[in-house]
Design a protein that fits this description.
The protein is α+β, with helices and mostly antiparallel strands. Helix content is 37%, strand content 22%.
């Protein structure tokens, strides 16, 4: 057996050909217990990967977003296996993120209760303590279909009928097979930090805190977000498009046109209802604050809300937060020494609140204008004076943070949180995370309108996510209403734009593994090529073009 050269952390090592990545890392990383996966020439691999040629490797720990995804997938399989052992006829559905955990449901002959959850937790502890291996096995698509038919997983069978591959990898845990679009930990012993929380009508799997991975993250109750998810899932069932296989069938049959119209009509109805709520309180509400994470469609939503408010007899105006940035020398910097424009301290909060108070009291103000080229405010701006029927619309990431508008009483404000909460799952055990859907949106938009390729967007994403975790998500439950901007059909449209861009990301790129991950998701979705049924005011038009607002 020959030796190969492996580059890791700036050093070159020699090791025998076919050395397991798990064995290679021993003695070379600070805390081996935190390492859950690896990168080999920028491709994400499990720790049982055999190093068979000269290469560059990297360690992936559970303090990283990618490492936590591996942990979550692996823990989900343990949960599924525990339920199947205790309740053989039960059906497990992995639903969505909630409260820093993962909300799941167990469908069986009687409703899930606290005693059931305690039983499942004990069984999971047992599985973890036995260090059971997650066996990765290559099978033909036909074999996989036979296995899932036998195990009673019809959604997987339907999905695999759309696969263009001849073979695929399954994972086996204690005799039970499953498929996950992503790698797992080597064995269950890696998953010692977790908890279960009964959350009617299901259960939340709680994971390690990324900032303190030896302890379970503290549960954060998000009842408003949970209600929106439940409503979204209800609509998915009503339209019979809660799985990718269902979407594919509609695309192939041509019936997707009706689904597009229904989905868009639902958006319009929801926006009109929000406008009605504002209008009912027109004597009090003077500020409408809109916040949401990247690529949630805030700009189009604000335009559509403006129109619905006009229908109700109001005459709103918009103010841009971008014009209230401090001079560049006063803007705080991030951990990399770059100007942190997403920090609320980057805004001139005193001037902003002063001018809002003046406007609400009927005074005329001269709005500032920020020049990003010089990093300073221009001395002149537009003069504005408003009447009582003119609420002020403010869109920005800090909209739900009370500090932004501290001078204005709460009863004078109406806060809206908007995000693309994906309702489409690949199958019962593989959800399409909201974050991934937003990233696909952003990749398309950045290329179409900002001359930015997919690689650069992917490189920026971790920074964007950190900003969201700090500035948006902690305040989302402060919203008066939440709006789900996801469209059940959108990935079918975005696929044909995003795939060619993702395929251009080369193996030499540090974000190659992210591109491959998104390509894996999109590979299961049939493209919607005819866009004529997508209305010009659709939120989707903000990303693919031909919007009536831009």
């Amino acid at each position: 057996m020959k030796d190969i050269k492996v580059k890791f952390n700036g050093k070159t090592y020699q090791c025998p050909e076919n050395t397991l990545l798990l064995d290679f890392f021993k003695g070379k990383v600070y805390d081996e217990n935190m390492i859950i996966a690896g990168l080999v020439d920028n491709k994400l691999v499990d720790l049982n990967y055999k190093l068979h040629r000269d290469c560059c490797v990297g360690a992936v720990d559970i303090k990283s977003e990618e490492g936590m995804k591996v942990y979550r997938r692996s823990m989900s399989f343990v949960f599924i296996r525990a339920v199947r052992e205790l309740f053989p006829e039960a059906r497990v559905t992995i639903e969505h993120s909630l409260g820093k955990g993962l909300y799941c449901e167990v469908h069986k002959d009687h409703s899930l209760n606290k005693s059931d959850v305690a039983l499942i937790k004990r069984k999971m502890d047992e599985i973890v303590s036995k260090n059971m291996p997650f066996e990765r096995i290559k099978v033909s698509i036909k074999q996989a279909i036979d296995i899932f038919n036998q195990q009673g997983q019809p959604e997987k069978v339907k999905l695999l009928k759309y696969s263009t591959d001849e073979k695929m990898y399954l994972y086996r845990l204690n005799g039970y097979y499953d498929y996950f679009y992503g790698i797992l930990a080597p064995h269950t012993g890696y998953l010692k930090v977790f908890d279960l929380k009964f959350y009617l009508p299901g259960v939340i799997i709680m994971f390690p805190d990324m900032s303190d991975p030896k302890n379970v993250a503290e549960f954060v109750d998000q009842h408003k977000l949970a209600a929106i998810y439940q409503e979204t899932e209800k609509w998915g069932r009503i339209m019979r498009v809660d799985y990718v296989s269902s979407l594919n069938e509609l695309i192939e049959s041509g019936d997707i046109k009706e689904i597009i119209r229904i989905a868009e009509a639902l958006h319009e109805k929801k926006i009109a209802q929000i406008a009605d709520l504002v209008s009912k309180n027109r004597d009090n509400v003077r500020l409408i604050l809109i916040a949401g994470p990247s690529s949630s469609g805030k700009t189009t939503f604000a335009q559509r809300l403006y129109i619905q408010l006009r229908v109700n007899g109001l005459r709103p105006i918009s103010i841009s937060l971008d014009d209230y940035f401090l001079p560049s020398g006063m803007i705080p910097k991030d951990e990399n020494g770059k100007y942190d424009f997403e920090n609320i301290e980057a805004l001139d909060l005193e001037l902003f609140n002063e001018q809002l108070a003046q406007l609400i009291q009927g005074e005329e103000v001269v709005l500032p204008k920020y020049d990003f080229a010089t990093g300073s405010r221009i001395q002149y701006g537009r003069k504005v004076k408003i009447d009582k029927d003119q609420p002020i619309i403010i869109e920005g990431i800090h909209g739900l943070n009370e500090r932004l508008t501290s001078a204005i009483p709460k009863d004078r404000k109406f806060k809206i949180y908007i995000s693309a909460l994906t309702q489409l799952n690949l199958d019962d055990h593989n959800r399409i995370p909201t974050t991934d859907s937003r990233l696909v949106r952003r990749i398309v938009r950045d290329y179409m309108f900002r001359a930015t390729d997919a690689e650069k967007t992917l490189e920026m994403w971790s920074s964007v996510r950190r900003g969201e975790e700090k500035n948006i998500f902690p305040y989302q439950e402060e919203a008066d209403v939440m709006f789900n901007s996801a469209l059940v059909y959108e990935l079918g449209v975005l696929k044909k734009y995003a795939e060619p861009l993702l395929l251009k990301v080369k193996r030499s790129s540090g974000v190659f593994y992210m591109a491959q991950y998104l390509l894996d998701i999109l590979s299961y979705i049939r493209p919607i090529r005819d866009e004529q049924d997508i209305p010009a005011n659709s939120i989707l038009r903000e990303f693919i073009g031909n919007s009536c607002f831009f």
